[in-house]
Amino acid sequence: EYPIPEAVSIRKHITMNVTDFLFTTAVSAGEPRMPPKLPALGTYQKGDSSLTFGKKITHLFDSSRNTPGAPHSLSLFSCNDSYLTPTAYLELDALSDDRAMTYLPVILFLGVIMIFGILGNLLVLYIYCSDSKRKPANNFIITMALFDFLACGIAIPLDIYDMRFHYTFFNHVACKAFRYSESAFTNASSFILILIAIDRYLKICKPLLPESPNRSKLMCTVATVFGFVIAAPTCLLFGIKRKQIYLRKYCGFDCTVSDEYRNTKFNKYYYALLLALFFITLFTLIGFYLRIWIAIRTRRNSVIGDRPSVIHSSVKSNDSKDSRRSFTKRKRNQSSTSDDDVFVKSDSKQMLNNHQSCTPRKSRIDRIGSSVTTMIGNVRCTRTTKIFIAVSIAFIACFLPSITVNLLQANVKSIQMTKSDVVKVILKLLARVHFVNHAINPLIYSYLNVNFRNQCAKAYKRLVSTCNEKLYRRKASISSRSSRSGSSKKLQKTDSDVKTNEVLLEHTNQSQNTETKNL
């Protein structure tokens, strides 16, 4: 049923697979000793292509794993750690080196992202945390910068380590920490973006709702808890996977989905959950920011000549004048310093309360009515909202390629079986584009926020001045030490000269006394 000699007519590499790797035990016995329960898919038939026969052999191996009485050569896919000799470890290191050279462009790409992300997010944390006039929106920026910094400092280095030691990743704890941190930081960032969109929506479209000063802090806390809780399944799902080495009886070690969960529903449900979270984030951001844009456009295009009916009540001239001055002053301050969206609800409510039961004056009514109408339509998309919209767009643009590549790799067999190194590098690079999101936010802040650029310049000047001051102090201390040593040497030299002169003088006196005695 298994005519092994006919396999000689197959191409050379298939022949090597069959004779040296698959049927060594059977051929050495002189005739095939296959168990009767094995299927007849290992038979080579004339006209079979190499790919067809390879599929048959693969199915034969899968069937022989759990078949009693199968020859040892058919059970080589079950890894045996007893073959992990020092020579085997050296071979695994060599294979890891070869794979690292293949993935070198991806490693360099991640290294650049890691450096820029760490430095940029540290700068963001320093500037926004040291701001004395901290606004509620700054809490969102600080929390996102903290997660981005941790992702660049923990997740990216471990991913580089995974690609560098592709077959020798032995540390279970590091593997689980890598996968958990990557998932937790990503989930928390996505939840924060959703809550930022909700906060912007409430500020612009629902301005009369009471606002708690701790609302942004509470939102950041909720997003953090949800992100870390949803990432908890990665501690079970991921681990060290045994990777079969070609023509070897031992396996390599890779940090990916554990063998016990690879083909289970738990694995599929978890990735379905991540995909659902991405699309929920996508459609939520689009929905809220679309509502914000519609609200801004509607109020800007409203009829400016209309007067609110409340204004036609009695108006007190002094109160209206004070209210108008207060509004003008606040508007000027808002346009110069504030980062938040403006819907002047406080001014409008104050004016409406002050204008009831007052003496009517047409000129005052016209002017105040114009001011209130301007205030009601004064909803503008300021710097903070633009920054958050840009951050949301960057998040979607960075994660969309990674999601697409992961779906293709999971469902398209031709991509899974590809042998091209170029294709592997491109897929690996696209699958890690989402790490760019952790390094791009500081660039967005610096481009859209003038105050952030100014604070960066001031921080750079302070750093340079501090370094120059320390360098000057160091040079001064070195020069003072050298001057002290030089002065001590001079003193020592002076003392030696004095002693020499004294000795010479004493010798001269002795010689004179001797001459006097002789005379």
What does this 3D model show about the protein?
- There is one protein chain.
- The protein has 519 residues and is an all-alpha fold.
- It folds into three domains: 75 residues, no CATH class; 247 residues, Rhopdopsin 7-helix transmembrane proteins; 74 residues, no CATH class.
- The protein is built from 18 helices and two strands.
- It has a two-stranded antiparallel sheet.
- A hairpin with a 6-residue loop joins strand 1 and strand 2.
- Helix 7 packs parallel to helix 10.
- It is flat.
- The N and C termini lie far apart (140 Å).
- Belongs to the G-protein coupled receptor 1 family.
- Keywords: Cell membrane, G-protein coupled receptor, Membrane, Receptor, Transducer, Transmembrane, Transmembrane helix.
- It comes from Magallana gigas (Pacific oyster).
- This is G-protein coupled receptors family 1 profile domain-containing protein.
- Pfam families: 7tm_1 (PF00001).
Structural class designation: mainly alpha
| Low-pLDDT regions | 1-51, 60-77, 303-318, 329-365, 368-377
CATH architecture term of the largest domain: Up-down Bundle
Beta-strand fraction estimate? under 5%
Overall pLDDT, averaged? 71
Identify the strand order in the major beta sheet.
1-2
Q: Kindly report the CATH topology of the largest domain.
A: Rhopdopsin 7-helix transmembrane proteins
What is the approximate shape? flat
**Total individual domains:** 3
Biased composition (Low complexity): 478-489
GO molecular function, one term: G protein-coupled peptide receptor activity
Membrane topology: Multi-pass membrane protein
Organism: Magallana gigas
